[in-house]
Amino acid sequence: MNASVSLTVIGILLVVIGIIFTAIPQVVNKYVFGELTGEAEQIAASGRLIVGGCAITIGLVAFFCRNFPTSEARMVLLALGTGSIILFITVLSSKFRGYDKYISVPPLVAFLIIALLAFTSI
Q1: Highest mean pLDDT range out of 30-34, 49-53, 101-105?
Q2: Are 93 and 51 a contacting pair, CB within 8 Å?
Q3: Can you say whether the dihedral through the CA atoms of 119, 62, 79, 113 is positive or negative?
Q4: Model pLDDT, residue 54
Q5: Average pLDDT of 54-59?
Q6: 0.85 exceeded by pTM
Q7: Domain that residue 8 falls in
Q8: N or C: which end of the chain has fewer CB within 10 A?
Q9: Smallest Cα–Cα separation from 52: which of 107, 15, 103, 104?
Q10: What is the overall mean pLDDT for the chain?
Q11: Helix or strand or coil: residue 104?
Q12: Residue 25: how many CB atoms within 10 A of its CB?
């Protein structure tokens, strides 16, 4: 896949994830954490809004870079792929560090898809 198509797909994927996180943070939290009550639900929803905003921002950067010359687009893809691997490891480490009882699979899959798209297009 060429760099332009990869940046377009990655950008759209991240923007969609970000919109979901910001539009329905309580539903995302319920899926990720199970039932939360009171202040914990509000704090977790606030965290989802922040994560959603970050995903939209990074997605827009990727999308707007899709028409870069090949060498510059490859650098953006390298950064996105490396960042996705770091996020994958960070999420995975939450279980081994004792912060979470189980690992949510959808973000891990999303980070791997982004990394694969990025690294196969370099």
Answers
A1: 49-53
A2: no
A3: negative
A4: 97
A5: 98
A6: yes
A7: 3-120
A8: N
A9: 15
A10: 94
A11: coil
A12: 21
| Neighbour tally for 57: CB within 10 Å | 13
Query: What CA dihedral angle connects 68, 71, 72 and 78, to 10 degrees?
Result: 120
Helix (H), strand (E) at residue 101: none
Instruction: Encode pLDDT of 93-122 as tens digits.
Output: 988 898 887 788 888 999 999 999 999 999
d(CA 37, CA 26): 11
**Chain centroid to CA 54:** 8
Angle at 20 between CA 4 and CA 72, to 5 degrees: 20
CA–CA distance from 90 to each of 34, 62, 103, 107 (Å)?
20, 21, 11, 11
Q: How many domains does the chain have?
A: 1
Rg of the chain in Å (alpha carbons): 15
pLDDT given at position 83: 97
- The residues, ordered by sequence, that sit 6+ positions from 17 with a Cβ below 8 Å of its Cβ are 52, 55, 59, 110
Distance CA 52, CA 105 (A): 17
Of 36, 68, 93, the residue nearest 77 (C-alpha): 68
> What is the pLDDT, as a whole number, of residue 88?
96
